[in-house]
Amino acid sequence: MAEGRFDFRVTAKDKVTRARCGVINTPHGECETPLFMPVATLASVKAMRPDEVRGLGFDMVLANAYHLMLRPGVDVVEGAGGLHAFMRWGGPILTDSGGYQVLSLGRDVRITEEGASFRSHQDGGSVFLSPEACMQLQGRLGADIIMALDECLPYPSDRDRVERSLRLNHDWALRCRESHTDGRQALFGIIQGGMYADLRARAARMIVELGFPGYGLGGLSVGEPRDLTLELVSETLAHVPEHAPVYLMGVGDPLGIGESVALGVDMFDSTLPTRIARNGSALVDGGRINLRNARFTTDDGPLEPSCECYACSNFSRAYIRHLVVSKEILGLYLLTGHNLHKLSCLMSGIREAIATGCYTEFLNRLKRMGSGLES
After folding, report:
1. Which listed residue, 34, 47, 91, 182, has the most CB atoms within 10 A of its CB?
2. The predicted structure's pLDDT at residue 270
3. Does domain 7-270 have CATH number 3.40.50.450?
4. Is 285 annotated in the active site?
5. Residues 71-91: pLDDT tens digits?
6. C-alpha distances in angstroms, 184 versus 28, 56, 138, 142, 143?
7. Which of 96, 144, 150, 266 is catalytic?
8. Which sequence spans correspond to the domains of the chain?
């Protein structure tokens, strides 16, 4: 392994499932997998200092190239010394290409073979993003892992539309690979394919044939039933080489992570822990609780009795509810820290269970506790 270059090695395998532990090496350090990346869309994990995020046990964060391109602009980030220096994060960073944001945020979107044309959701200005421009953008930002530009289809999409998209995504991935020249950055391909198992398999074979060091699974967990998500993940991974890390994009609920790890997924990201904190909710074993609920007005217990995070060690549900309904910033901070702590503990528990040969028991306990959805 070359010093400071991307590398992935498997360190332990579960004997019953496809779950595995591994280590990803990057120019900014190593990360143990399975891992969860807190989302730092605009070069900041909302309401948290970088050292606090690191202190909670996270080694890698995700930032979004689309958002940073629009604000503050790649010139500003590059001028500050790159994304790591700009946001004062010493560990690895992954940047998403922006394909999903083009679909979800862009206005007047037009997709052609050349690239994606759209209007900025911020000021309405015209923007064009091609595979080559996407590689240049992410190269200038300086992330350790960058993602190929892909076309994200709305859910649901009919089969004919998805089939047409497979070739476009292949061609864009090829152009990304050919224009990617910075050996310090690992370029991951993205596998799409809609909600069709055979198209997912075909997409996987097409992207894997191009030869990337890692692969993202895109277009999942967008409203489809959980059983279908797992079926599609399983079908896709049957065509992905074992030596490459697999990144399931946008999944962050505890059971979804646990079940996907059992299928062989190594990396996850989601806005869930920070987003629900902004809405007044806390992750707890078996689901989540909404502190806006009046039943917590006089509850002097912690968010979760077994939790050792700063919020649970010092404050009551009643106090945190008071902060939430009063729109005090401290409430957002405490809930965000708690939720990230829960995800960090989940990932360390998953890695330990795999390493000690008891992942099936761990997953069964997670299933008994519940899905991690609203309760």
Report:
1. 34
2. 97
3. no
4. no
5. 999 999 999 999 999 999 999
6. 10, 27, 12, 9, 9
7. 96
8. 7-270, 273-375
